[in-house]
Amino acid sequence: MLQNGVTDQDTKIAGEAHEAGKGVIIVVNKWDAIEKETGTLENYKKDIYEKLKYLSYAPMLFISAKTGQRVDKLFELIQKVAKQNAMRISTSILNQTINEAIALVQPPTDKGKRLKIYYGTQASTKPPTFIIFVNNKELFHFSYERYLVNQIRKEFGLEGTPVRIIIREKNEKEL
Question: CA nearest 115: which of 88, 147, 92?
Fold first, then answer.
């Protein structure tokens, strides 16, 4: 991958894994063959994440299969990501995190109507999928969804795994 950078095939495979909700680790092989200067690693990381923006949650590891450099760390990382992908978060702790996120950044408004988030619960794992109950789905902008995902990641880690959010309306009468 280094000689060619991120190839179309790399992008296609990474996209398939992301869409399927699989845990992802970006592994760069043949790191021993690269002449390194100050900032080489950071520049490679930046370039790869730029081409695979949707995998910003995926850890990256530079290895050499030939010399065995950092291969042992790869197996540790595989176990960690698998655990994160299968993580279950209790409803009460999830809602505490959501409420803290709401206190920091108020939900958006549109034409005088404010999004109300009633509560959230985890629907499944592999990948962690959360259902958020709101007053009006139309008010739940994708940027606020991204914000909530980032807050959930910040609180629970979820490194190497996509996080899915499903928005459901809950009428006031039902409460």
Answer: 147
